[in-house]
Specification:
The protein has 495 residues and is an alpha/beta fold. Helix content is 35%, strand content 20%. It has helices at residues 26-37, 41-47, 76-89, 111-124, 159-184, 192-206, 215-220, 224-230, 287-301, 347-362, 375-381, 393-406, 440-449, 484-492, and strands at 2-4, 15-22, 55-60, 63-72, 98-101, 149-153, 209-213, 238-244, 256-261, 263-267, 307-317, 329-330, 338-339, 366-371, 386-390, 410-412, 430-431, 458-462, 468-469, 478-479.
């Protein structure tokens, strides 16, 4: 899609979206719009209140105007949500070419922020979940075609900022949709090798290095916990190491950040098998890996000034005669032995190897892992926030603020040492699960903490309730790309 800032307003696009916030700014803006289209202002005030997602259509000469409500004091995620919903619902009506107008006295926030959110939302609204359908698709979205264009109508002095913001919104949406495809794909279309290939393709396209260890290299490197989880699988594991490092232009060393994402391509629970009712959703158990892939790609796209390492240990968790059994004691990359109490607590096992490997071999300044890890987090926060665990108050605050800005929210939970009892083992250095139906997310975090090599700026994000969710865009749960926008925001603000 081509995004333009028109040189003249003499030739306007056929359809123009006018975003409007409710409250004080609305009345003068509606008066301006009424004069533009020759409508009685009183009737327009009566018909349109600018509630979140409200749409009112006006016609004038050869133009169609869509008034799009954003609600009171709209934040970035609220603007994005309104535009994405509009793009999805009006895909058959919106027309092309399309414009977004900030010329009607309707701008009550920062223009670049409004434009970035609007463009990101419009493009995300063009996404079709029916990737594997052979029939029944709704047809191409007006913004998805090869010749699609979008015009930003704003004051001339905002041209540069708005075009830059629109470009960010577009680049983010394109990566997010690639993440949607990855997470939404069923496990017979997605295995550890295909995750590795995704990373290799992204690295080649956007300029970061990727190494994908095969099973032989994983064995030689001593990544025993990953190998243990993989024992019941027909697909060999992959250990994916990505590294983005731009030139150091300022003369000072780049901040080094390490990301680890859980890459379980399907989780049956292993011999501690899950109930069948919702097991089909376990194709999404690589949501943490997807967030790391997306963050790596966005950092390279935007040429962020930092040194970023991403690691994804990838396998499925299947049932076979060779499968890991409850009570087994396994080794790990760190050298610690682990008593396996529950084979459905496999994500923390492969993350343990990923965290130890990254901490030892790259020594990052900041270490963050993301995983669809526990049902405990879903029971605590529902589908609205991730669980945040950290041993560093400053890092926790930075991540929380990034979540608030982007709408990918999180809430901090404790990792006090009193919870170490949950991972004590009589037969190994530690166990992977307490066996108790309480504090499950905290116990998982305490387990991971044992593998960070005493790192002092570590955070764990349990994204089980937010990576794959119900929405108006699909009839069943689908991918959200949680973490991509939040991590990009967080990384872009590191000094």
């Amino acid at each position: 899609m081509v995004i333009k800032f028109p040189d003249t307003l003499k030739s306007l696009p056929a359809a123009i979206i006018i975003p409007l916030a409710a409250g004080g700014p609305l009345e003068p803006a509606l008066g301006h719009i009424a004069r533009t289209v020759g409508q009685p202002p009183a009737m327009l005030h009566q018909d349109f209140k600018a509630d979140q997602g409200e749409v009112h259509t006006l016609y004038h000469e050869q133009q169609r105007y869509y008034l799009l409500g954003l609600g009171q004091n709209p934040s970035f995620p609220e603007i994005l949500k309104a535009f994405r919903s509009f793009s999805h619902k009006y895909r058959q009506k919106m027309g092309a070419p399309l414009g977004i107008s900030l010329l009607h006295g309707n701008l009550s926030g920062e223009a670049p922020s409004w434009v970035e959110a609007a463009v990101n939302g419009l493009i995300l609204g063009s996404y079709s979940i029916g990737r594997f359908k052979n029939s029944g698709n709704a047809g191409p979205h007006p913004l998805a075609g090869a010749g699609a264009s979008l015009e930003i109508l704003a004051d001339e002095d905002l041209r540069e900022e708005c075009l830059e913001a629109a470009n960010r919104g577009q680049q983010m949406a394109e990566t997010q949709m690639r993440i949607f495809d990855l997470v939404n794909a069923p496990s017979n279309k997605k295995n550890p090798e295909s995750l590795a290939q995704w990373a290799l393709n992204s690295g080649k396209t956007y300029g970061f290095s990727v190494q994908a260890m095969d099973k032989a290299r994983i064995e030689s490197n001593g990544l025993h916990a990953l190998l243990a989880v993989n024992r019941g699988s027909e697909y060999p594991p992959s250990f994916i190491v990505m590294e983005y490092r731009p030139e150091e232009s300022s003369g000072k060393p780049l901040k080094k950040v390490g990301l680890v994402g859980k890459g379980v391509t399907f989780d049956t629970g292993g011999l501690s098998i899950k109930p069948s009712a919702n097991m089909h959703y376990m194709k999404s158990d690589m949501g943490g890996a997807a967030a790391v892939f997306g963050a790596m790609e966005m950092a390279a796209k935007l040429q962020l000034p930092l040194h970023l390492i991403g690691i994804v240990p990838a396998t499925d968790n299947s049932v076979d005669a060779r499968s890991l059994k409850p009570s087994d004691v396994i080794d790990s990359y760190s050298g610690k032995t682990i008593e396996v109490i529950d084979t459905d607590a496999e994500g923390r096992l492969i993350l343990a190897d990923g965290l130890s490997y990254l901490a030892r071999n790259f020594k990052p300044d900041i270490l963050i892992d993301l995983a669809t890890l526990t049902g405990s987090t879903v029971r605590t926060f529902g589908y609205h926030a991730a669980g945040l665990f950290s041993n560093n108050d400053e890092l926790a605050a930075q991540l929380f603020q990034a979540g608030e800005r982007t709408g990918e929210r999180m809430w901090r939970l404790p990792i006090w040492d009193v919870y170490k009892d949950d991972i004590k083992s009589d037969v190994a250095d530690l166990r992977n699960y307490s066996g108790k139906p309480m504090a499950g997310a905290i116990g998982a975090a305490k387990f991971l903490e044992a593998f960070i090599e005493n790192h002092t700026a570590w955070a764990h994000l349990d994204i089980a309730g937010v990576a794959f969710n119900d929405s108006e865009f699909a009839s069943q749960k689908s991918a959200t790309a949680y973490g991509v926008r939040m991590l990009t925001d967080f990384l872009s603000r590191l000094g």
